[in-house]
Specification:
- By secondary structure, the protein is α+β, with helices and mostly antiparallel strands.
- The protein is built from four helices and four strands, in the order H-H-H-H-E-E-E-E.
- A hairpin with a 6-residue loop joins strand 2 and strand 3.
- The chain is elongated, with a radius of gyration of 14 Å.
Length: about 110
């Protein structure tokens, strides 16, 4: 389960970076786009570096998500320029967004995924 993997590495920024980059490589970083959408290819190339740059924020995000899942405290959203992290009030879904230029890469995790 994805949530179990994230919780096992929630105190390991390098592990979280590796996990997120692996998730990106198996989904958004592969595949072809029309040639007139070169900006998407550029954004995809920049995403791994942005994930690495935001390692402390992603760690804080996942730890906050876990505490809110366990009802230990309410989740405090993070909005730091090209990175944001939120948990849906109704659904409990974790949403991490990395923005590269005009492109937003969104990682969503269900609370029981």
């Amino acid at each position: 389960m994805i949530i179990n993997q994230l919780l096992q590495i929630q105190h390991d920024p390098a592990g979280i970076v590796g996990f997120l980059i692996n998730q990106a490589e198996t989904s958004v970083l592969k595949g072809d786009y029309p040639t007139n959408m070169g900006y998407i290819a550029e954004a995809r190339q920049e995403l791994p570096a942005l994930i690495k740059e935001k390692d402390k924020l992603t760690t804080k995000c996942i730890q906050g998500f876990n505490r809110s899942r366990e009802n230990k405290e309410s989740f405090k959203p993070i909005d730091e320029g090209d990175f944001s992290c939120h948990v849906g009030e109704t659904t409990g879904w974790l949403r991490m967004t990395f923005q590269v230029g005009k492109i937003r890469f969104v990682f969503m995790v269900a609370p029981l995924a």
